[in-house]
Structures
1.
Amino acid sequence: YLEANDNGEAQVGVVWEALKTVVRGVPFGPIGRRGRLVGEILKVDRNYAEAPKEGLLRERRNLQTEFDLLITGKAEAQWRKAQGAAYKYGGGKGESDAGTLAS
């Protein structure tokens, strides 16, 4: 964790507090596949800032597309779930009918 995050960009105290949070197992910030993608995007951005190359731009675009698809998929799933709950428990016109159908 320290090798990846103690890169001089953040204050030592901030890195230390984040490390304690990770060790305790409390999720903070992006985690899982989303976190990996964010980390890879930042790495490509840093590399491009140091030495601009066409291949890095292509890689950045591919990572951003993968990230966008992931986030969009999660947002769509949450929206569908919310729509189902509104139907099941009522939330507008036909509220009494929806309750009857859900029973």
2.
Amino acid sequence: MRFKCAELKEYQIVGKPLSKTNEKTPIYKMRIFAPDEIVAKSRFWYFLRQLKKVRKVNGEILRMTLVSNSSPTKIKNFGIWVRYDSRSGSHNMYREYRDVSTTGAVTQCYRDMAARHRARAHSIQIMKVEEVKAGDCKRPIIKQMHNSTLKFPLPHRILKYNKKSIFVAERPSTMQ
């Protein structure tokens, strides 16, 4: 999967194998994170071929929808179950991220896996993505953001010159 610089999009794809006779065939639905529709369809057929032995030639896509974010202004905690192939074998992982959208958290996950584990985008499989409550978070780096009295220092503040004269004899102090 070619990973473009933009954030990934979430697609919901519904497909089924073609029936040779008029028998009922099962319908499969998947959540796919991809940069565009073409890659999303490709990943859908890749996973369906692996899981259910259905090839693109012997199947059809019934519906493909782009999933939008429900509340884009609220920060949420996301738990992501990942499977990836490394040089030594296949590994399962659980990772946590904070973001305003599911797609943002998954994008963070892909970039984090590339940085920490040298995992390429094509070798990463997102098994499940879930919104996690603050009390259920496991990772300390996420838990530290749940403090209600959390404050960030503002070390290098620039003075506003609307009250003071611009030309003065001494330099302004920006470290207070």
3.
Amino acid sequence: VAGSNTMQVVDSGQGDVVLAEWKQSTTCVNSSIPSTIVQGYGSVDVKLPPPTGVTVTLSSSRITFVGDPSSKSSSNAVPTTSRITVALNFASGKTKTMTLDS
């Protein structure tokens, strides 16, 4: 995070995910030294707290198989698919959608 000493963690993970750069001070510029003196990645291991709950949402609570006459009715047709969304709830009040996570 440029110009800051804090960052926001949005997911658990590990690896070389933090890029740090040492740069020349703006008050002491030496043209023979590149503005970025050195940079490198730092390895971190981030673990989110355990969730306090889970919220599962369905786009349709009722489905039928493809070809069922009820799916072809012009009024009140029963869908053949339903989207499922899964979100973890944390004590801080934040949620993390996990629908596409493996």
4.
Amino acid sequence: MVCWLYQESDDVEVFLAAAGQRGLIRVISTRRMRDEFTLSGHGGAVNEVRGHPTDNNLLLSASKDNSLRLWNLQTKRCIIVLGGLEGHRDEVLSCDFDLNASFVMSCRMDHSVKLWSLETEEAKSAILLSYTYPAKSEKPFPVLHIHFPVFSTRTIHRNYVDCVRWFGNLDLPKSC
């Protein structure tokens, strides 16, 4: 899976986030033609990576380890893990942000579609903290774990859902 990203500074820098079977996400500079850094934390293959629609430093990943992770590319930290108690119980195949990045939609092998909120005070605070947390702190970054989606359904599809996308305010899951 790949995702194009860009960073605006004095000039625009274009990056490619590439992930796959090993559970690693490599961020590659297209200008320098080299790996800039690698994000690790998933316990299984990464099935999809998606860039944040309003903050070019944030990346979302969906994995075979039953979770989604939100990463800060500037600080190279995992900020939020979406999954757990009421999360996915099988590999997450696809994910997407809505246009305002208020919600994340995800789908998995068991026919389910889940909607996660990034509008909670805890989520907003974790994202802000990821930019200011000291790089050389003795304590690890306090990753936020969100165990409960705001909506979940398994009644729409009869087969596994392999892709989800937002189209304006509409969520469009696709099943085989």
